[in-house]
Specification:
Distance between the termini: 21 Å
Order of helices and strands: EEHEEHEEEEEHEE
Number of helices: 3
Structural class: mainly beta
Helix content: 10-25%
Radius of gyration: 18 Å
Length: 242
C-alpha cells in the first residue's frame, strides 16, 4: 500500500493516495503515519513504536507527495523550513471554470472554523484571520461533459493555511472539481445530477494533488525535489498530463 519515492535513515518521501489521512487517524481507518510505522518496523524490528514526524498535511480527499521525518531532530529541521517558507510545494488543480488571467497571485485573509472544519475569506482586520497567498498558472482549459468548462492549473502555495487552495479558488468563482465542502455544484451530490462526479470518473475525489515538493535535506544539506503527476480520475481528462 505504501508508495515510497525516497528513503534514508532520516527521511521518507511517499505518495499519499486519496482517502487516507496524512496524520494519525482518530478512527479505525488506515492513515499514512501508521503505514510508515509498519514499514519501518518491518525493515528494522525493534521494541516500541517507530518515530514518524508529520511535517505538513494534506486533506483526506487530496493525493500528493509528502515527506516525513524518522528522527525528532530531522522533524525540527524540516518544520523550520516550512515556517521559513523554504519548503516549496506545488499542486495540480482541476478548477470548474476558466480563470480571467492565465497567471495570477491571490492574497486573502482566511478564518478557520474548527467546529465546522472549514475556512472562509474575511476582511483583514477580523480577529484570528491569517494571510493566505498562492500563485496560480492555468495550463489547459477544455469542455468535459457533464461538468462543463474545466481548467487544469498549477498552484504554488506561498503560505500554508487550512483548506487554502480550496477556499481561495472557490472565492474567485473557480471551485475545485469534486469539492463537496466549497463547490456548491458538488454539495452532497444534490445539484449535479448524473451521480455528481461518480460513474466513469470513479470515486468522489477532489481535483487537487500535491505533485511537487522541494526542501533541503537536514543531514546532507542537499536541495531535493520530488515530483509525481497524478493519474486517473478527473486528471485523466487532460491529455498528456496523466
Amino acid at each position: 500500500m505504501l508508495n515510497i519515492l525516497y528513503e534514508d535513515e532520516q527521511i521518507i518521501v511517499v505518495w499519499k493516495p486519496v482517502g487516507l489521512e496524512s496524520q494519525s487517524s482518530r478512527g479505525f481507518g488506515a492513515d499514512m503515519v501508521s503505514e510508515i510505522q509498519r514499514h519501518i518496523h518491518k525493515l528494522s524490528p525493534k521494541g516500541g513504536e517507530p518515530y514518524v514526524g508529520v511535517i505538513h498535511r494534506l486533506d483526506k480527499p487530496v493525493s500528493g507527495v509528502m515527506v516525513y521525518a524518522k528522527e525528532k531532530k530531522t522533524a525540527a529541521s524540516l518544520s523550520k523550513q516550512v515556517a521559513d517558507h523554504k519548503m516549496t510545494k506545488k499542486y495540480l488543480a482541476v478548477l470548474c471554470g476558466k480563470p480571467v488571467d492565465s497567471v495570477d497571485n491571490f492574497v486573502d485573509y482566511l478564518l478557520k472554523d474548527p467546529v465546522e472544519n472549514s475556512s472562509r475569506i474575511v476582511d483583514k482586520g477580523i480577529n484570528g484571520a491569517k494571510r493566505a497567498e498562492l500563485r496560480m498558472r492555468a495550463l489547459e482549459t477544455k469542455e468535459v461533459e457533464p461538468y462543463g468548462t474545466l481548467t487544469l492549473a498549477e498552484i504554488e502555495l506561498l503560505t500554508g493555511r487550512h483548506h487554502q487552495i480550496r477556499v481561495q479558488m472557490a472565492g474567485r468563482g473557480l471551485p475545485l472539481w469534486g469539492d463537496r465542502k466549497y463547490n456548491p455544484e458538488f454539495g452532497g451530490g444534490k445539484q449535479m445530477g448524473r451521480g455528481a462526479g461518480r460513474g466513469r470518473m470513479g470515486r468522489m475525489d477532489v481535483g487537487l494533488s500535491a505533485y511537487q515538493i522541494g526542501f533541503v535535506h537536514p543531514g546532507t544539506g542537499e536541495r531535493m525535489e520530488f515530483e509525481r503527476v497524478p493519474d486517473g480520475g478527473i486528471f485523466g481528462e487532460f491529455v498528456g498530463r496523466e
